[in-house]
Amino acid sequence: NAGVMQNPRHLVRRRGQEARLRCSPMKGHSHVYWYRQLPEEGLKFMVYLQKENIIDESGMPKERFSAEFPKEGPSILRIQQVVRGDSAAYFCASSASETYNEQFFGPGTRLTVL
Amino acid sequence: SQQGEEDPQALSIQEGENATMNCSYKTSINNLQWYRQNSGRGLVHLILIRSNEREKHSGRLRVTLDTSKKSSSLLITASRAADTASYFCATDDDYKLSFGAGTTVTVRA
Predict the structure, then answer these.
(1) pLDDT tops 50 at residue B108
(2) How far is CA B59 from CA A71, A94, B47, in A?
């Protein structure tokens, strides 16, 4: 039973480019969460999605960031026109519908903006 | 937001010794969880303790929770080199997990 999958594991972008981060939840999980970890800090909640719905995006910057979780395929976190401050590790977690506080994390995508 | 804060920031111990780290939080919680993160890797869930529990064990891990002091501790007994990692506590506000900055534990052989 595969865990949460994220790709790519490492992503390098130049300022102004777009970054697309993908997350496939654990089998049977329909809830996806994205967190961001800046260097030397803990993870910060960004967004909570269910299939085809954004439930809570209160932790996501209002501009340049968007997330989706389509009916088919992985969840995507998209960052447009990246800036150096976007450099961080982005983690995806998933949970079953009944136990959303028991979240299982993927290995993360480390984004470096040059 | 409810945010766990770990103490100390860093801990260095000899293999075989015990490691203790603490977590304080600000408001009432439903659950408190501890995670481990090896360098450059994702988070591994260690243990969840509910607000009505005072102590919980899992292998060499022992977690305590004192809701009156809004604090929790994680004890790793008989540490091993493989325990070298960062340890985070997380409180949950419904589905949002709030993490502290972590305690970095180094176990010396």
Answers:
(1) yes
(2) 40, 25, 10
* Chain A, nearest residue to B42 by Cα: A107
Of A55, A56, A104, the CB nearest to B45: A104
pLDDT < 70 positions in chain A: 1, 98-101
Chain A nearest-CA distance from B42, in A, is: 4
Query: Residue B2: what pLDDT?
Result: 47
**Cβ–Cβ under 8 Å, residues B73 and B23:** yes
How many CB pairs lie under 8 A apart between chains A and B? 62
Under an 8 A CB cutoff, do A101 and B99 touch? no
- Return all residues near A43 (Cβ < 8 A) that are at least 6 apart: A35, A36, A37, A91, B43, B88, B90, B97, B99
- Which of residues B81 and B41 earns the better pLDDT score? B81
| Nearest CA distance, B50 vs chain A (angstrom) | 11
What is the model's pLDDT at position B1? Answer: 45
Which chain B residues have a beta carbon less than 8 Å from that of A6?
42
Mean pLDDT of B25-34: 89
